[in-house]
């Protein structure tokens, strides 16, 4: 079988060789050696190759992600040159006449255990560095390839079990033509990152890493969710044609870049973008975004060894606000947890991380982390049109606590003589059913709602957004979702507030007519979805769609909803 079906995660067609991103088998045998000098030479060579790779990765991280993200690699380089670690390995080879693999492993394990048990965060971070670095050195001793996504310098399609958001952030889109993974869904964070990098992706293929080898030719069809392994010439030709059609289509869409988003009958809605870093703002501009509806700040905290400082954050927020001018920028406070981990916080592993200690729950307990972020945001607020949004709000009490801390920090800054904008709207993500159900009570206290359907759907249907086995239950058009969304919009409007949506559903061509019918004010989506959405909305009559509202809300299944929308909108 040369074709796999997965979930279309990011539009476009990619045709290139497979690059497997997986930690290789690093098992080794313990051996006695006679020529200990030769063994020490092998170690030195493996250390040298590792150093030169890390230098390159560091340089890449510095130019593409900034100095702070490069620091982690400086720490790794220090480990590789540290005589306190390297000399004991060499001594062990010499005195015990053992192979370099064994000496490296024994010595590294000893230091890791020693540092991990220390009551000192700095030393525990060093343990993590040693762990990371020894894997790379071990791979070079064993002569196996260690994957370096940042160093890819030829056109490839990355295949992997899954990509962490920080793996994805390292991919150089000049060379990485696309990616495909075994697990994940359209709303897993690797898929979201693929869309912001504008790289075609198919996730959730179940077993691409078993079906394809490194070097196999692949076609990734991110439009229809297909992956073809070692395609025939005919298949390549037909996909090249599809690729060209897609490029032409993009040029058509681009004509609407500077046009407002108005329905056929003259209603205006706001089409804004989801971003993860200040670098993404360029894509928002190129795709005609009318603002930023969700700035996921987690990426500032990821791919590093420690929390970002107040100044680092201030610079990132200021950069986004300045680039966006007077357009609105909704910044979400830290939403760590679920599939976004911060190893340096050393949080205990949980049975159900999506239902666990995360986002606002963590911020309210670790208010040192929260206050630093809020101060950075408040300081940056004078540079643009900032709105602050709290994630994963389950109860009114959480919102009140979070807002009280924000006001305290505002007062502190004012007392310190630092200017803070006076009209920052403060809103919440609605991604937990309890909040959607009592949206009326929330609407009296918040300035806006942004419906996070990526999570709202998984919590409402009890279907993990990352798990392709239950992806059939992950139903954006389920009438339960439509009724919750409707409830939130009505609640907002009853109090004169606005309601947006920043889950992926906001950019979906079947959902868009429904959301127009329900009266959504702001649609926030991957930047690349903005122009197709604008094109679609200009052809829809909001009045006509609104006349179907009660019918849609009364339907019994997602299929019924979808068929109805397809029929009414010729899709
Ligand atoms: C936008 C959302 O947040 P995230 O995808 O970051 O969880 C959501 O849950 O819909
Ligand atoms: Mg969410």
From TrEMBL:
<keyword id="KW-0479">Metal-binding</keyword>
<feature type="domain" description="PEP-utilising enzyme C-terminal">
    <location>
        <begin position="250"/>
        <end position="540"/>
    </location>
</feature>
<dbReference type="InterPro" id="IPR006318">
    <property type="entry name" value="PTS_EI-like"/>
</dbReference>
<feature type="coiled-coil region">
    <location>
        <begin position="229"/>
        <end position="259"/>
    </location>
</feature>
<dbReference type="InterPro" id="IPR008279">
    <property type="entry name" value="PEP-util_enz_mobile_dom"/>
</dbReference>
<dbReference type="Pfam" id="PF00391">
    <property type="entry name" value="PEP-utilizers"/>
</dbReference>
<dbReference type="InterPro" id="IPR023151">
    <property type="entry name" value="PEP_util_CS"/>
</dbReference>
<comment type="similarity">
    <text>Belongs to the PEP-utilizing enzyme family.</text>
</comment>
<comment type="function">
    <text>General (non sugar-specific) component of the phosphoenolpyruvate-dependent sugar phosphotransferase system (sugar PTS). This major carbohydrate active-transport system catalyzes the phosphorylation of incoming sugar substrates concomitantly with their translocation across the cell membrane. Enzyme I transfers the phosphoryl group from phosphoenolpyruvate (PEP) to the phosphoryl carrier protein (HPr).</text>
</comment>
<dbReference type="InterPro" id="IPR050499">
    <property type="entry name" value="PEP-utilizing_PTS_enzyme"/>
</dbReference>
<dbReference type="InterPro" id="IPR024692">
    <property type="entry name" value="PTS_EI"/>
</dbReference>
<keyword id="KW-0808">Transferase</keyword>
<dbReference type="InterPro" id="IPR000121">
    <property type="entry name" value="PEP_util_C"/>
</dbReference>
<keyword id="KW-0598">Phosphotransferase system</keyword>
<feature type="coiled-coil region">
    <location>
        <begin position="26"/>
        <end position="60"/>
    </location>
</feature>
<feature type="domain" description="PEP-utilising enzyme mobile">
    <location>
        <begin position="153"/>
        <end position="225"/>
    </location>
</feature>
<keyword id="KW-0762">Sugar transport</keyword>
<dbReference type="InterPro" id="IPR036637">
    <property type="entry name" value="Phosphohistidine_dom_sf"/>
</dbReference>
<dbReference type="Pfam" id="PF05524">
    <property type="entry name" value="PEP-utilisers_N"/>
</dbReference>
<protein>
    <recommendedName>
        <fullName>Phosphoenolpyruvate-protein phosphotransferase</fullName>
        <ecNumber>2.7.3.9</ecNumber>
    </recommendedName>
</protein>
<dbReference type="InterPro" id="IPR036618">
    <property type="entry name" value="PtsI_HPr-bd_sf"/>
</dbReference>
<keyword id="KW-0460">Magnesium</keyword>
<keyword id="KW-0175">Coiled coil</keyword>
<dbReference type="InterPro" id="IPR018274">
    <property type="entry name" value="PEP_util_AS"/>
</dbReference>
<dbReference type="InterPro" id="IPR040442">
    <property type="entry name" value="Pyrv_kinase-like_dom_sf"/>
</dbReference>
<feature type="domain" description="Phosphotransferase system enzyme I N-terminal">
    <location>
        <begin position="5"/>
        <end position="126"/>
    </location>
</feature>
<dbReference type="Pfam" id="PF02896">
    <property type="entry name" value="PEP-utilizers_C"/>
</dbReference>
<dbReference type="GO" id="GO:0008965">
    <property type="term" value="F:phosphoenolpyruvate-protein phosphotransferase activity"/>
</dbReference>
<keyword id="KW-0418">Kinase</keyword>
<dbReference type="InterPro" id="IPR008731">
    <property type="entry name" value="PTS_EIN"/>
</dbReference>
<keyword id="KW-0963">Cytoplasm</keyword>
<keyword id="KW-0813">Transport</keyword>
<dbReference type="InterPro" id="IPR015813">
    <property type="entry name" value="Pyrv/PenolPyrv_kinase-like_dom"/>
</dbReference>
